[in-house]
Design brief:
The structure is a single chain. It contains 10 helices and 14 strands. By secondary structure, it is α/β, with parallel strands linked by helices.
């Protein structure tokens, strides 16, 4: 698939010597949803800020739709919409005027019909004549998204868009994200809610210490790095795992009534048939068993911990 954003050997060192980004290269495909995950201070916001033209890189280059962000600044900036972490809105501005003004900043002709559709999609139409200061935090977050979309960008950056937002509003916003992707908008988001990345992202990038550790298709990542566990529920509780079952590395839980066997699903042999036979030979009655897959959060934590 064609790349809409190309980042090549990007580095950023601040005046105090802090290296926020270290030789980052990344290709973002046209029309995808890419989730950037990483601990606080990992470099996610710095990367977004450089692509959006807010922060200057120390080294490397970035292009958007084939145009360099420095040489063709006006053109590339018009292709990008940014929803920042901070609520940067004028207290006395009205919602309708805020979006119209933002559209005009990019030289777009007035389009009341488009602004109305945008406000309706964001559930803000009833608030169009309301001053920003009278809105709730969640509504202000929606206005920020409206501002970012007012000039009809091809690429939308969402930097922690659901921070401090209630669960219901988060679901509404992610539904909007899916609709935008279906309309052809490429979306790059950072989030601390890893379950959201697991639900809506096509690919996942993990940043730690200013370096891009990996970028993978979400499902392939979970298959490649995820591990499965089989939980065997017993009829009777055990005080300890029998010695005859030691080679499987079982964990005892559930007040002694559950045995957990962790294995690599990519292996030629999982060892499950042999384990179940050994459990029976040990005189243990099995009530039930089930398998579980590592979550994206568990994979993320293991990758970051492995580098510390």
């Amino acid at each position: 698939m064609k790349s809409i954003v190309s980042v090549t050997n990007l580095s950023k060192t601040y005046s105090d010597g802090h290296e926020a980004l270290k030789d980052v290269s990344l290709e973002i495909a046209d029309g995808e949803i890419l989730a950037l995950l990483g601990p606080n201070g990992a470099g996610k916001t710095t990367l977004i800020s450089i692509i959006c033209g807010i922060v200057n890189a120390s080294d490397g280059s970035v292009s958007v739709d084939g145009h360099d962000i420095i040489a063709d600044y006006r053109h590339t900036r018009s292709l990008i919409g940014l929803v920042p972490q901070e609520l940067t809105l004028g207290h006395f501005d009205k919602v309708w005027n805020t979006l119209c003004f933002s559209r005009g900043l990019f030289g777009k002709a007035p389009d009341p019909d488009y602004i109305e559709r945008l406000l309706r999609n964001l559930s803000l139409w009833s608030k169009k004549d309301t001053e920003i200061m009278a809105l709730s935090g969640g509504m202000k977050r929606r206005v920020l998204i409206g501002k970012a979309l007012a000039h009809e960008p091809k690429v939308l950056f969402l930097d922690e868009p659901t921070a401090g937002v209630d669960v219901e509003l988060r679901k509404d916003m992610w539904a909007l994200v899916r609709e935008l992707r279906e309309s052809g908008v490429t979306i790059i988001l950072t989030t601390h809610y890893i379950e959201e990345a697991e639900e809506i992202a096509d690919r996942v990038g993990i940043i730690d210490g200013g370096r891009l550790i990996l970028v993978e298709n979400k499902q392939e990542l979970m298959q490649k790095l995820g591990r499965k566990a089989m939980i065997i529920e017993l009829d009777e509780s055990l005080a300890e795992v029998p010695d005859t079952l030691a080679r499987w590395g079982l964990e005892l839980s559930g007040d002694g009534s559950q045995l957990t066997y962790t294995y690599d699903p990519r292996g030629v042999r999982t060892g499950i048939p042999d384990l179940l036979q050994a459990v029976g030979e040990a005189g243990l009655a099995v009530k039930d068993f089930k398998t579980t897959q590592s979550s994206l959060e568990e994979i993320f934590v293991s990758l970051v911990k492995g580098r510390s």
